Amino acid sequence: MRRSLSSLRQQWSGSSLGSESTLHQLAPYIGKLKTSIAGTLVSAYSTPGSTILEPFSGSGAVALEALIQGRNIIANDLSPYAAVLTQAKLFPPPSESVAIRKALRYVREAKKTAKERHYRTDAPKWVRQFFHRKTLAEASVLTKILLKREEWFLLACVLGILHHQRPGFLSFPSSHLVPYLRAKKFPRAKFASLYAYRDLEPRILAKIRRAYKRTAVFDKQLLRQFTRDDIRNLIVPRQVDLLLTSPPYMNALDYGRDNRLRLWFLGLEDYRDLDRHNCRTPAEFEKLMQCLADLADQCVSPTGTVALVVGEVRRKSFSINTAEIVMRVFTEGANFRLVDSIKDLVPDLRRCRRNYCTTKREWVLIFKRKKSAHE
User: Fold this and answer.
1) Same domain, yes or no, for 60 and 181?
2) pLDDT, tens digit, for every residue of 264-286?
3) Secondary structure of the chain as H, E, C letters
4) Which of 265, 42, 329 is nearest to 136 (CA)?
5) Residue 31 pLDDT > 50, yes or no?
6) 187, 273: one domain
7) Which of 164, 219, 259, 266 has its CA 20 to 30 A from that of 29?
8) How high is the pLDDT of residue 2?
């Protein structure tokens, strides 16, 4: 007997930071789906051995929870940053010791190369202002090495310590989620040590150890597939039992701008190339949801489920009911019916910019096919 969302909600209430796998904490991600919500929905709407599709994988929360619970996973995201984080969780090194050995080899190679180049980089001024010259050169070389060798876990670790005000990070004092310098709060004359060279080696080793504090154990024989594509062009080669995702917030977050520093290290020179894919109007959002509904219609099994976590859009004088748009698209324009829904507060401050109230609530929507033998 299917449990209702109202009975499931208690499983995702409160913070999951102290209990989730620390692989979930590789690097921050604006708009991150709470891992306890992802895990609860995976458990409630799929069974071990089934296949889950996550077309907007973001931080990789659904992907990792699917593996931990013995599900096959097909994940996709257009963002280079999301691609790194998701693949880091899908394909981590088998142990902390293996990860550390690899990191030491790559870091020492990067340091040698940066020194031979006299710590010169071709970084633009806005990037250079975040780092000591030597730190920037070594980090830039290291990310290029890791990208070339597809070392996604180590690359995610570097991105996870790229900028913050704490000494364990690589940048000058800055905010953690969205990169802004905090020179006024931490003036160089008073906090000189925060503007000194920051050695990559001890910082990335500490990051790796934190990542393996609560390891994620899963069957390596499970299907782990990732693609990086626009959902409008995505083709899923097999039938899936659950499509579980949190669509991008409509005109609430700039996934390129908010991650611009990490994206530059990943080779995206102009973050606006990514933000051009954002939905700015209800009409654009509806078109994207129609693409999602078409994808679900093509690949979700006859007895399968679609579970969507949809963030609302709120302005000072009005709000846009994005959940209503999604429900209309799936029930009127596609072969699905709504079987359950619930509205929830967004408790995780990492999902919003400071003083940014555009998204404070979200809907969890559950759809089944209109003609289903299971029902």
Assistant:
1) no
2) 999 999 999 998 888 888 899 99
3) CCCCHHHHHHHHCCCCCCCCCHHHHCCCCCCCCCHHHHHHHHHHHCCCCCEEEECCCCCCHHHHHHHHCCCEEEEECCCHHHHHHHHHHHCCCCCHHHHHHHHHHHHHHHHHHHHHCCCCCCCCHHHHCCCCHHHHHHHHHHHHHHHHCCCHHHHHHHHHCCCCCCCCCCCCCECCCCCCECCCCCCCCCCHHHHCCCCHHHHHHHHHHHHCCCCCCCCCCCCEEEECCCHHHCCCCCCEEEEEECCCCCCCCCCCHHHHHHHHHCCCCCCHHHHCCCCCCHHHHHHHHHHHHHHHHHHEEEEEEEEEEEECEECCCCEECHHHHHHHHHHHCCCEEEEEEEEEECCCHHHCCCCCCCCCEEEEEEEEECCCCCC
4) 265
5) yes
6) no
7) 219
8) 64
* Domain count within the chain: 2
The mean pLDDT of 78-100, rounded to a whole number, is: 97
Residues 86 and 226 grouped into a single domain: yes
Task: Quote the distance between the C-alpha of residue 121 and its chain's center.
Answer: 28
* Average pLDDT of the chain to the nearest whole number: 91
pLDDT band per the 50, 70, 90 thresholds, residue 17: confident
- Picking from 158, 192, 211, the residue at the C-terminal end of a domain is 211
* Domain range for 204: 96-211
pLDDT tens for each residue of 334-366: 799 999 999 886 554 444 444 444 556 889 999
Whether 226 and 342 share a structural domain: yes
Q: Are residues 351 and 225 in the same domain?
A: yes
Q: What is the pLDDT of residue 315?
A: 63
pLDDT score, position 130: 98
Domain assignment present for 216: no
Assigned domain for 262 exists: yes
